[in-house]
Amino acid sequence: MEDQAGGQDSFSADWCSLEWTPWVPFSTTSRTLERIPDTAGLYRIRPTGQDLMMYIGWTDGSLRQCFFGIRKNATNVVMPWKDPWPVAPALWAWKDAKGYTYEFSAVPYGDRPVEREAAECYLTYLCRLEQRESPLCNFGRFHRKYRRPTDQKEGVAGGKLLPGEPLNPAGGPSASPLVVTGKPGEPGWMGLAWSITRNLRTHTTAVVPPDQGYYLIFDAATGAVLAIGMSEDCAKTLFDLSRNPWNGKELLYSFFCEPKPLPVHNLRERENDLLGNYIEQYGTVPEYQFRDGT
Asked: What is the pLDDT, as a whole number, of residue 3?
């Protein structure tokens, strides 16, 4: 995947040198559905005719079936459950609040899930740099005047908040993109004051505050970044990681804690900025990025 060039933008047909389908409206006829590939890949959603990104996603199944499912759920009379399409309730809320109708564009991509997941991270990173904010439904963002539903099994419905109910914190503003500077592992990478690098041991994590932030895990033998993570309690997360070393590897860590509390969607946005810049520099994700526990 290539970076933007020649004036491309996140709504263009050749964004990142990919061959995106034309924008297909949710109200499309069955004849035009053939424009959406019946393969795994990436997709993006926007309000009809607007340069406003609602969502960037990926699927290991059929993009066409993904379109069917999201469209059916996002256009329900009542807010849908968060399963099987987690983005559908957020789209529904914005439709209900603003009267949005939507369009869908897709591209076949990748041979493995990790490639598609990495591509979604990179695309949302580029979109944030271009738009100066995230897509309205990525990173758990939601309309501030609506309540998110649970899955069907838990059975707690979503919907519009009543007058006097607290606003949904996931409807707060997007975090500004991090400053693109330096290389992963350097002290000032992406404008953050990273801690010194330490061996990852249970006793060495005692210096880490129990605060929100981000961490880097390194291979002690090579210095390579193995994973980039976000935590609402960096001390606990790094302590837990120190008790379960990966494949017996000797590990190092570095961290940065936020000076004041942030909504979870802001933490996820900034974590994605870090990962997106890593992909931009190295063309892939860290070796252990998408394993459990990171």
From this structure: 54
Dmax over CA atoms of the chain, in Å, equals 63
Mean pLDDT of the region 149-175:
97
Q: What's the number of domains the chain is made of? A: 2
- Residue 287 domain flag: no
Same domain, 244 and 102: no
Distance CA 119, CA 110 (A): 9
Q: Please name the helix (run of DSSP H) or strand (run of DSSP E) that holds residue 47, with its range, or none.
A: strand 41-47
Cβ-based neighbours of 257, under 8 Å, separated by 6 or more: 208, 209, 211, 212, 213, 234
Q: What is the pLDDT of residues 40-50, one digit of tens each?
A: 999 999 999 99
Element spanning 229, H or E:
strand 225-231
Q: Which of 191, 193, 204 is nearest to 250 (CA)?
A: 204
Nearest to 142 by CA among 100, 99, 101, 171: 171
Domain span at residue 134? 15-171
Of 126, 148, 124, 121, residue with least CA distance to 135: 124
Please report whether residue 73 resides in a domain: yes
Query: pLDDT tens for residues 25-35?
Result: 999 776 778 88
For residues 196 and 167, membership in a common domain is answered with no
User: Could you tell me the pTM of the whole model?
Assistant: 0.94
Look at residue 163 and tell me if it is in a domain.
yes
Mean of pLDDT values over 95-104: 97
pLDDT of 5 above 70 = no
